[in-house]
Design a protein that fits this description.
- The chain is α+β, with helices and mostly antiparallel strands.
- It is 48% helix and 20% strand.
- Strands 2-3-4-7 form a four-stranded antiparallel sheet.
Length: 230
Amino acid sequence: MNYKFTLEQQKELNDLSYEPQRGRVKGYGWDTRLAVDLLRTWRNSNEELVKKYGKIASYRFAMNNDALVNKILDKNYTICWSFQGNTDYILDYHQDAILHGYSFGKKTYGHSVGLRKHNGKKCVKDNYEGRNYNGVYTNFYEMRPTCREEIEGGTYRYWGYLFTKVREDNYEELMRLEKVHTACNNVLTANSALWRDTNDKTLQKKLHDLSEYVRNNNIAYIEKHKQLLS
């Protein structure tokens, strides 16, 4: 489903992102994981959209699994992905709308994009307006054949995210898992805030260990079973 958000909906989502439980702070970037969680929750609470298109679920998966990534892209899905860039990164793909490098030194900013197939090639679709590349106006730029290199080079993030429709017969169980998933994300957000606010190394380690446990056990379990139900 290709859905275009209205300006009013974009403003609503932006306002919601600053609610205390969302973990977003003015003047700073935000976590793609939390943005995906907000969008899914907002979308499934919109009765008009649900009636027209049905409910959606979201999934997190490792982007260094090129076979899985290619399988998803071949089904015409768009993967939510994020990277850390700098001037060298921008200059690289501004030459010809192709990203040639995979490691660009010290990063100065972060950004989220969509990874999808475009004209048969693996491309990033930016959310900015298009640019002119040697006479070609586009907001797509072509990626390297494998995602693994960008991750190992420290440019692109390890996790990618995917939205899909929910099968009606599994809706109740998926919604239960979604609520638990949201609760786990809230724990991670709270732990991250506490970790930043303390200089106690022992407490920081305990918070880190707890967050790792939640990611590797609770969230991993939820995501596995959500995939089985979709």
